[in-house]
Specification:
By secondary structure, the chain is of the alpha/beta class. The protein has a single domain, classed as Purple Acid Phosphatase, chain A, domain 2 (4-Layer Sandwich). Helices cover about 35% and strands about 25% of the residues. The protein has helices spanning about 40-55, 80-95, 110-115, 150-155, 160-165, 170-190, 195, 200-210, and strands at about 1-5, 5-10, 15-20, 25-30, 60, 95-100, 120, 125-130, 135-140, 215-220, 225-230, 235-240, 250-255, 255-260. The chain is globular.
Length: about 260
């Protein structure tokens, strides 16, 4: 078992366990900020939040789509995200542990970003042991299995060979391609039903059973809510984070209780 600043990592099980001396400190979860230099207010809102986080949080989990799009760790300055990286680094240096799970917009975030910011990258669908509960954290798009077209595109973009080939192209070309894909995605979503783009309930139940979960936290769908579900007679909860388009959406955990603020 390897200890990482208050978090014990059980490598063979892929489970991260919060250490006891953090038990009464506040943990926060955020997702879907979609930061963009084209919307300076989104970056300001995030940086303001990070200033508070540095003094009030023991741990912050960012569950994907922190950025509207990310073209590789060498493109941060070109995209206007230097201020964002500085805010993350300052908060990390203050003692707040920051963990990041990639979303469908920022799947190219890598080791260089982590080194610059002090953020630790986790795999999607990581299971945490918090307050005696098994809690899965995920971006959430992998549960939207009814959207067959999206799931095919997702598999393509997560292919390591495709990612490596893209990262070899000039930054300007990557930005243009990202903007094109972003526009195509918005057009496609405008013609899709909300049900297809939401998570599949049977898939959620399957994941709960397979991982013996008590609780799940994810984003992606932009539908903040606390769902209660019955899994083989056990009452479980699924917390869904909202996007930060106009205001913050945060889940706080403290002393064994979880709160969704939207």
């Amino acid at each position: 078992m390897q200890t990482l600043s208050g978090v014990s990592c059980i490598n063979d099980r892929g489970v991260y366990q919060t250490a006891s001396h953090f038990k009464h400190m506040t943990i926060a979860f955020i997702s879907d900020l979609h930061l963009s230099a084209a919307r300076p207010s989104s970056i300001s809102r995030f940086c303001d939040f990070m200033e508070v986080s540095a003094t009030q949080l023991s741990t912050l989990y960012i569950l994907g789509d922190l950025f509207d799009y990310w073209v590789g760790d060498d493109g941060a300055e070109a995209l206007g995200f230097t201020r964002v990286e500085q805010a993350l680094k300052q908060t990390s240096d203050s003692g707040t542990e920051i963990y990041f799970i990639a979303g469908n917009r920022d799947f190219l975030v890598g080791d260089a970003f982590a080194e610059r910011t002090g953020v630790k990258i986790l795999k999607d669908k990581t299971v945490l042991e918090l307050y005696g509960q098994r809690v899965m954290i995920a971006h959430g798009d992998q549960f939207c299995i009814d959207d067959i077209e999206y799931m095919k595109a997702r598999a393509h973009f997560l292919n390591p060979q495709w990612q490596q080939s893209v990262l070899k192209t000039p930054i300007e070309d990557r930005i243009q391609e990202a903007m094109k894909l972003r526009s195509e995605s918005e057009q496609r979503k405008s013609g899709q039903s909300e049900e297809i783009m939401d998570v599949n309930q049977q898939e959620i139940i399957r994941v709960f059973k397979e991982n013996n979960l008590d609780l799940m936290i994810h984003g992606h769908t932009h539908r903040p809510y606390v769902h209660q579900l019955d899994v083989d007679g056990k009452t479980c909860r699924r917390y869904v984070l909202g996007e930060w388009k106009t205001e913050r959406s945060v889940i706080y955990a403290n002393q064994g209780k979880f709160y969704l603020k939207k």
